[in-house]
Amino acid sequence: MILLGIDCGTQSTKTVALDWETGQILASAQKAYGFAKTDQPGAMEQHPEDWDAAMRSTVTEVLAHLGSRKSEVAGIGVSGQQHGLVVLDESGAVVRPAKLWCDTSTAPQCEALTRELGGTEAVVGHVGNAMLPGYTAPKIRWLAENEPHNWEKTRLVLLPHDFLNLQLTGSPSMEYGDASGTALLDVRSRTWSEPVCQAVAPHLPSRLPTLRSSAQPAGRLKNDLAAEWGLPEGVVVSAGGGDNMMGAIGTGNVSPGVVTASLGTSGTLYAYSDVPVIDPRGEVAAFCDSTDAWLPLVCTMNVTLVTELTRSVFGWSHAEVDERIAAIEVGAGGLRVLPYLVGERTPNLPRGGGVLAGLRPENFTPAHLARAMTEAVTLGLGYGIGRLRDLGIHPTEIRLTGGGSNSPAWRQICADVFGVPVVTLQSGEGAALGAAIQAGWSVQRESGDESSLSSITDRLVKLDESTRALPSPEAVDAYAAQLAETDRLRATLHTAGWI
Fold it and tell me: How many angstroms separate the CA atoms of 29 and 21, rounded?
């Protein structure tokens, strides 16, 4: 049996073909795209049609690599960037470009909705999450306020992966995992929150799709697509999910104790939980996962965005960066950085900026600056680990993904900041692999095989033990003190109105 996993990201869409019996990735293809033009400050938008075109292109390429074995394809799973607002009219056409997770233009709508609903505590009471600019609800409010003609045209609200599922199956739906990132879903009951929906925009409940279990398939591949791609009829399209939910499956993060940390352009930390994990401060996202459990998650917006800018300034290769930061002591000689170059989500500083403090002649070197930037973005995730621990999540191992995880020096910094062992995976496919695994799980369930998802990931998700890094007690203590220092610096500057 072969499963296709499709991952629709912010920069590109990737499709992989997974051999279910061997766990081998048989083929993969990737297609990049850009952003839609917009003059709105803080806005980040894309054309959903570009995602569809990239999906079709990469699937076609992967199937060409499979040759005659494409007849073995039994299921397809889709992972998509979370929170993006896709609005369709009565004919199913896209009304306007999708506002993305990284769009911060909706900060005023967040403030207004939070105030109207009675404050952050009340919002968390309604849906389990605070109202943050990245989420979908304030994007809908923005659309209704700023483009009422487009809201009037809208008949269906979807998320990116739901839009692709619609192209594959012809039937609109939304599963619990990705829906929990809208700030419209009460994550405890897995139902739309009526008070929040009413506050966001007129007629919103009638424009939301049917909710379904994340374990229930989205449908079957449309006959015309099956014929076009040369696939058998009846190919299962699993529920799919947000990229973090699929990344959890793809990293084997489907049981307590394992935490996944992604060191990409932005950073995410997420864990598995059998019960909802609600943060009264709203800093930890109280998401559902795509297995009908829960996925407490922390997101920071500045990770390799910061380190790659630093690398480009000095003109270094990745190997040179690794060599230089490894040569500098823990603490970067007293340099302290607040790396909020594009604002920040955790802590919630949508209008934040970057800050460099503690410069002295002895630490004013390229290597010290590179070390300080790397430590700063990792400490941002370390803040999130602390919040997870406060809420009862106690990691025993952190599995690293994303471009930053390729750096041995950075892996050691992660182990020391997080205070637990870190390790990477043999496969770097992450969310695409998770989507393929979920598709296989769905096919098995339909055939009456009730094998647990954890038993499947134990077989298919392999760790790269050569990358394991263990925390140093002395460095753990030093970084704990450094995190406290940067927390005080942030609080002081935020109170003064500088960030």
Answer: 21
Cα(98)–Cα(295) distance, rounded to whole angstroms?
A: 25
114: which residues sit within 8 A by CB, 6+ positions away? 120, 123, 130, 131
Q: Which one, of 266, 284, 264, lies nearest residue 276 by Cα?
A: 284
Fold: same for 2-243 and 252-429+462-499: yes
Q: In the 8-state DSSP scheme, what is residue 343?
A: B
Whether the link from the prior residue into 347 is cis, omega within 30° of 0, is yes
Which ranges of 128-279 would DSSP assign to H, the alpha helix? Answer: 136-146, 148-153, 160-169, 176-179, 194-200, 223-229, 243-250
Distance (Å, whole) CA 176 – CA 192 = 10
Q: What are the structural domain ranges in the chain?
A: 2-243, 252-429+462-499
Half-sphere exposure of 421 (CA within 13 A, CB side): 14
Contact 161/3 with Cβ under 8 angstroms? no
Q: Global pTM? A: 0.90
Using CA atoms, how far apart are residues 84 and 97, in angstroms rounded to an integer? Answer: 10
Residue 349 pLDDT > 90, yes or no? Answer: no
AA letter at 496: A
CATH superfamily of 2-243: ATPase, nucleotide binding domain (3.30.420.40)
pLDDT in tens, 286-317: 999 999 999 999 989 899 999 999 999 999 99
- Half-sphere CA count of 391, side-chain side, radius 13 A: 26
Query: Which overall architecture, per CATH, does domain 252-429+462-499 show?
Result: 2-Layer Sandwich (3.30)
Give the angle 347-404-303 at the CA atoms, nearest 5°: 25
Burial class (CB in 10 A: 0-12, 13-18, 19+), 372: buried
Sort 242 into a burial class: Cβ within 10 Å, 0-12 / 13-18 / 19+: buried
Question: Which residue bears the tokens 């060599």?
Answer: 323
Burial bucket for residue 328 (CB in 10 Å: 0-12, 13-18, 19+): buried
Backbone angles phi, psi at 225, to 5 degrees: -70, -40
Using CA of residue 335, residue 341, residue 345, residue 350, what is the dihedral sign? positive
The Cα–Cα gap between 13 and 58 comes to 8
Rg of the chain, C-alpha, whole Å:
22
In the numeric block, which tokens belong to residue 186? 């009460």
Q: Which residues are catalytic?
A: 243
Q: Distance between CA atoms of 142 and 106, rounded to whole angstroms?
A: 6
Per-residue pLDDT tens for 457-499? Answer: 999 999 999 999 999 999 999 999 999 999 999 999 999 999 9
